[in-house]
Amino acid sequence: MPLFWKPYKSDVTQFIDSLKQRDPQLEERQRQGRFLLWDKNVDRQAQQEYNESRVAQKPYVYQTKG
Hints:
With 66 residues, the protein is mainly alpha-helical. It has helices at 11-22, 26-37, 44-53. The mean pLDDT is 87.
């Protein structure tokens, strides 16, 4: 390994690192946004009722009954 070898950082990684340096609260705001959209409590009873009420799809959906 050469004496002046530096590990490679892609342009995208350098850009993200510079964003984090300019705005230290960026990651915390990302976590809050993720919590709003994805981290939800699931009502297990409602989920079970939804799964039980599904109707199985026919193998060929465009075929008529006749």
